[in-house]
Design brief:
The protein is mostly helical. Helix content is 74%, strand content 0%. 0% of the residues are buried.
Length: 61
């Protein structure tokens, strides 16, 4: 039994082949995810540390 190929099947096979060869795209995506996770973690740690330290505001007289 032969399967009838549709234009969508051809498009999907081309797309999968392109994604396999586009390793730099995956590398860039991974780097972006790492940068976002690190920046969110640093922002949370800084805000937590900022709340813990007592702040003395200078009064203008």
């Amino acid at each position: 039994m032969t399967r009838i190929t549709t234009p969508f099947d051809v498009f999907m096979s081309d797309m999968l082949l392109w994604l396999e060869t586009a390793w730099y795209l995956w590398a860039a995506l991974g780097i972006v995810i790492v940068v976002v996770v690190v920046s969110v973690a640093v922002a949370k740690m800084r805000s937590r540390g900022y709340e813990r330290v007592p702040h003395y505001y200078r009064r203008n007289t």
